[in-house]
Amino acid sequence: MNPKVSVILTSYNKPQTVWKAIESVLKQTLQEWELFIMDDASNEDTTTIIKKYSIDNRVHYYNSHIDDQDRYKKTRYAVLINQAIPLTTGKYLSYLTDDTEYLPTRLKEMVNYLDRNSNIGIVYSGQMIRYVDSELKLISEKIRKPDGILKRAANRVDHCSVMHTRNIADQVFQKYRSYWDDNPKYWHNGDAAFWSRLNMFQSFYPINKVLDISYKTPYSFQKLNAYLPRKIPDGILVKGISSETYLIDQQKRRQIKDEMFGRLKYDRKKIVTLPDPVLFKYSCGDPINDKIFENQTIPNQLLVKEENSSDIFFIQDNKKRLLLNQRTIKKFQFKLKDIVQLNKNVIEQIPNGPPIDHNLSPHARLPDGVLFKEGSTYFLSDNNTLHSISSVVLKKLQFPLNEFVQLTRGERLFFKQGEPLNFVLFQ
Ligand code: UDP
Ligand code: MG
To answer: Is residue 111 over pLDDT 70?
Structure first.
């Protein structure tokens, strides 16, 4: 017998919650379902949990084996759902993410509604949203109530609160040549993009009950992606969901070995957690470990000095730039506590770059990664160019907003202005 409903669960590295999502399907009061677990090449912690459920012959498991560096190119869950739909056999389709659980009557109530109203092709329900900490402890909760018959459901109904007929999905496919739009610009709201397609054919009909619970963790994509600029500037410390930390250096990510934090005066409080698909956009550069003191490239934007000399250098473009005097340190707000001591022979090996003067003149070459402010506008220097940057982006990137170099308009005009580092909704 064919199942009534095909549930498509998309999964990526959520070992703490993915089992709840799966078990919530197993516990449904309606029996005639099939579950497609579409795993996006998760870590072992996650796949070990998921695979346990394959013994149930209603559960089908697929692994995308996507390479990490390709992750950001498409909206991954849209890709996975598009792969799943042709494999499914149910009359109705329903979606689930790995941080959401259906309440036990979810499938039965929606199936009954669609069965009874053969002219209706799309139903949706209310949702309980639970904000939790990294240990899943409840911080607060709220209910997203259904809001009548929706001609425009985009951004008003969650991914996990909808059921529709296969028939209407086929109509979408005929019109758009795909089901879900996997363009990466919809990563933050791929469900909304699909609801707009569905709405071309029909309205969404409400079931006035909460039928699923969604957990918002500190690691949810929406949260991590908020206020990120399209390009993470050099000099920012970043990590993804796993514990490895990296420095963005010449637009590559260089893994920082734990013991190097203290030695290079990096501040763990400044690490920015990125969604993995964004982190993996940056290819791997040389790791930052003991070897940098021998022959590997010293990270850029570091302040260094030799043990027995008073000369202080700023590393930029893999060269050392001498700070010409005390006023240079003051001008650019370099901090003495950030200076890293190096051996004479290590310093000598680093080629010389142009020295840094405290004077801002048309001939000056700015140090990279310095925050400037003119009037109420912030600018970040990179490659002798000033990029305007908004305060929400600065906060996201862990810049203290009160530490900046004051700039006059005249001084600003000495330098090229680059693309603003505004936040984007997609990467
Ligand atoms: N996802 C995916 N591949 C990835 C990242 C995420 O398939 O590389 C899936 C994830 O398993 C989930 C959906 O995309 O089913 C939405 O992700 P998430 O829950 O992190 O986003 P948010 O809840 O913040 O929208
Ligand atoms: Mg989610």
So the answer is: yes
The pLDDT score that the predictor gives to residue 140 is: 97
Q: Which residues pair with 317 in a beta bridge?
A: none
Residue 346 within any structural domain of the chain: no
- Take residue 311 and report the two structure tokens written for it: 């000369």
Closest by CA position to 379, among listed 394, 398, 395, 359: 394
Q: For the domain that residue 79 is a member of, what is the CATH number?
A: 3.90.550.10
262 secondary structure, DSSP code: H
User: In angstroms, rounded to a whole number, what is the distance separating the alpha carbons of residues 9 and 225?
Assistant: 22
Residue 116 lies in a domain: yes
- Bin 400: left if φ > 0, else alpha if -120 < ψ < 50, else beta: beta
In the set 40, 99, 191, 382, the catalytic residue is 191
Q: How far apart are CA 85 and CA 36, in angstroms?
A: 9
Reading across the β-sheet that carries 405-406, which strands appear in turn? 405-406, 371-374, 377-382, 385-389, 416-417
Q: Domain range spanning residue 115?
A: 5-218
The one-letter code for the residue type at 52 is K
Tokens 């730039």, residue located: 321
Contact 296, 307 (CB under 8 A): no
Query: Is residue 191 annotated as part of the catalytic site, yes or no?
Result: yes
Tens-digit pLDDT profile for residues 9-38? 999 999 999 999 999 999 999 999 999 999
This prediction has a pTM of 0.90
Total of domains in the chain: 1
Pocket of ligand 1 (CB under 6 A): 10-12, 40, 71, 76-77, 80, 97-99, 220-222, 276-277
Q: Is residue 171 part of a domain?
A: yes
What is the SS3 assignment for 205? strand
Is 14 within a domain?
yes
Among all ligands shown, which has an atom nearest to the Cα of 13? 1
Pocket test for ligand 1, best of 40, 102, 189, 228 (most atoms within 8 A of CB): 40
